[in-house]
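SEVERITY: medium
COMPONENT: batch folding queue
REPORTER: lab tech (J.R.)

DESCRIPTION
The queue accepted two submissions in a row. Attaching both inputs and their returned structure tokens so the on-call engineer can compare them side by side.

ATTACHMENT 1
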Amino acid sequence: MAFDPNRHVSVSSGSFSVDVNELCATHTLVTYEENLSIGPARIALNAALAEADLASFFAPETAAGLICAISAAISALDSLESSVDDLRWKMQDAALTYADANAAASLWEAVPGSPLGAQLSWRSLGALALSPGGALAAGGVALYHGFQDASASAGVPWLPAVLLPEMTTMVRGRDLWNTAIDGVSFALHGDEESGALFQRDLGRFALDVNSLPAFRGVAQSLAGQGVSQDLNSTSTQPASGIAALAVPWVVAALYNRMGCGHGASYGVAVRGTDGNARVHHSEAAARIPSGALDARTQAALAAMPDAAPDTHYEGITTSADTIEHITTMSGGDADNGEIAIEEHVTAHQNGTTTRSWTVDIRGTQSFMVGESGPQDSLTNLQGVAAMPSDQLDAIKEAMRAAGISPGEAVEFAGHSQGGIMAAQLAADPQVRADYNVVSVLTAGSPTATVAPRDVPVLAYENSGDIVPGCDGEATRGDNVTTVMFRDYAAATHPEDPVPSSHSAPLYVDEIRTTLNAAKASSDPGLSALAAAEARRTQALGLTDNTHTTIHHYQTRRITEK
């Protein structure tokens, strides 16, 4: 795929904020400085040039050199004035752009210009058609959102629900409706605007739910089981935590009443290429007789297929190569999961070798919950909620089986659910204590709520991909470099049945193309990507003399059935 310089790719690195008022003030100051400095300097240089012309009658040679120098200074001043004018126009354009973005993303966006004006969009017009009070409702919702934000900032997010219970119910329903509408619109069109609206509305509805006194009580009572207590944000993390705890009970009920599902999970089994198996029993395993646990463990081991054989390659592994390695994994399904661990051995000129590792984690293999394969929707809920999961335990057991030493550099990489797991592992204090975590690489993953703060993260996202927006927040941070693609057509990649923009092979194509462009580009965004790629290469110690072996591991839950 050839790089198209006109396509839309943006790269952001580090956390930042924009004060539009300050930007406008700076624009004004630059304008004044131009008028106060460049104007007088031009007058002075023109006067000096006139005096040099007069002096040429008396000292031609000296005057000629002086005229040349003054003319060069005037040319330099012209160039400076042109650059300052260009800067002023860019600052003005940036201020207008950020102001428009703030207006579009603001929770007051429903009432541009006036607290009581209806939003001029198909959504507000539909509300107005359905209800004579649609215009008033739009203004009321915006005012409520402002009160809600102020209350959340003050640490009392429940205050609007207590003081305005009927308004709370109405706003919550409206926010849910907007989330559903924008989700459908995004699914149909895959455009950047509907994707941004969906993420904003999802975050807004999450805050609605998290602010409910009853919900807060449930979440706080489950704090010891890993549910997030950050209930004042627009993160979906707390809601996902409660859903993740509720889902096993639903699955168990279905199993008991209808004989379907796999029942409770008692841990996970991991088997490598050598045929050896490792078992990690969960806390639930202690509640059943040891004989029954042994029988279920042996049944899980007997049902597991053999792991794929090791593969090898030479040279530097780019982020595109790593995501591509994940796409080539084929041993996972609803019944079994698959993890690959890349062992990088680099030979140096002094005859020594160093070793580093990349842990490759696949995305969701089943959208059911409680499957025997741990890469299912239950893991999705647990991951976004930053809760423990069988998949996390499986990855840790695979790392132990691979023989990773404490001081050796480790990178976690994943697509979709795999990226959630990668970020969660890198942020885990125990994992950080056991391993030297140097990098996180994700593609199409909602990692905003679980990404580590002190480990470099390189995140690839597509504005037409709904999955990265399912955390309700933007992926940002001082150590986060986010590459956003905006040029996807809603088409299915021929090598992947996953529709349109979430396809892993499609991500690989875009990543590889953008990396190639970044090598020869001076564009600030692409330069930031090149720098992030160089950091991960250096952190892993990869060179042309690196030999990599990919070890594959099969995983399976130890279930009740």
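ATTACHMENT 2
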Amino acid sequence: MTEAANRTETFTRKPRVAYFSMEIAMENDIPTYSGGLGVLAGDTLRAAADIGVPMVAVTLVSRAGYFRQEIDPQGRQIEHADDWDPARYATRLQATVALDLEDRQVWVGGWLYVLSSRANGGTPVLLLDTDLPVNDPRDRDITDFLYGGDEAYRMKQEVVLGVGGIAMLQALGFNLMGYHMNEGHSAFLTLALLRRFAYPSEDLRPGESPYDLPRVRELCTFTTHTPVEAGHDKFDYTLVRRIYGDLLDLGTVKLLAGEDKLNMTRLALNLSDYVNGVAKRHAEVSRKMFPGYAVHAVTNGVHASTWTSLPVAVAYDQHVPGWCHEPELLSRADRIPNDTLWAAHQESKQALVDKVRNLTGGVLNPDLPILGFARRMTAYKRADLLFTDLARLKAIAREHPFQIVMAGKAHPKDDAGKQLIEALHAHMRELAGEIPMTFLPDYDMELALLMVSGSDLWLNTPLRPLEASGTSGMKAAFNGVPQLSVLDGWWVEGCLEGVTGWAVGEDSPTANGHDAIALYDKLEKVILPLWYDDRPGWINVMKGAISKNAAYFNSHRMMRRYATEAYLR
């Protein structure tokens, strides 16, 4: 038996939940993720391994990665290929499966990667790959580019992910007790399941559906992440017929996925018994977007050991033993002596200061507070809100000096996001000599950990209600870094004013226009004076972030919710 077969067989002996996601962050050096969705998927699978929930993940190999980001002297984003070799990290699967796309056969192979756990072995991840010599040259790159190409390319990817993933799991002998779609990209898997569970034609009465819809629904879980209608994938039926002509009869598909276009989210909603948003507020927004569907709320969480800096983890090990396996134990963070927690934070902060110097040549002062902001650079995230009134920002800094560290990538086709990055660099030049500011290029998991642990205050300023959840503030909480955020996403649940962090403005969609003033007021009158004048009071807020946010908003709690409510229902 080959090594691949041996490794695969160890994971096929017990029933598992198949978790489908277009992107999964497995390691920093494996560029199979673009941002929060992929990082969350990785944290989900790590938590599953930690607490013993049997899962197998399916994604694309994304050989060309997302992209490496360079920033030119004018502040413009330049994208570079970020190729990687799966053979360095994963084991080639022996099985291949065939799909019919555009009236020709496309073979799908793959790789096995194991997200390891110190407790329970690990979670297998199947990386589907069409770069096979047997394939037509037109098809060998289908699995190469994460979120790349045109609409036809995206649809081929989603057919490979959903339909090819189902076929590969079967070919490898996995015994599956359910299927979890992380966003709508993999919803074609429901059509593959309907074909599998079709009734024999001789058992049907006139007018009856040939497909066992209740059986498929019973098997499927769907997590939606997008509170904006435009963010849900839709495909013209002419394109659908051209690419995937052998799908179910068109009448059935239109009933399930929409009359005008094939809506991947509608397809997943109609064929899943358990549907959830990723925060309580997001579930409310989703129920309004998709009336008639029961949308539960399972608020996101982050993986404890992955997102805690080493100095802080050492302090936890000493004063809250077992936190890594039971993050809820961090509710006892008040046990940590103030000096110990502050020293751990300062060590994490120095690591960020050193990284800034090495990457950009910028010099930050570890004795001054650092405001951190890092996430996908797109308009609704409002990375530029802090710079609405530069005169007032400078006036605040003269009274209480502070520094700013920012990072984030804009999608290559998001011109507004790219312009936002340019605008941030223009602000940096305008603030030079008064407020130290730096923008770290090529934001990835390594930079994220340095920033969420080395900043003193974490900023999040999206337009309400467009932040489904957001998890960077949760990562900051694991490092005792309080958050200043708009009340949207998970922060509606996590914010205890002055205890875990602070809110920007009111909890109302109409408050967006007043957020800049509210942000400045909170910095000037509350946050910076506390940091400078009341160090024990500041450390109390750090401990509040740990004990009340990190102890709850972690992937172990999230995974237990999925296991008990979705998988074992």
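NOTES FROM REPORTER
The domain at 310-553 is CATH 3.40.50.2000 (Rossmann fold).
No errors were logged for either attachment.
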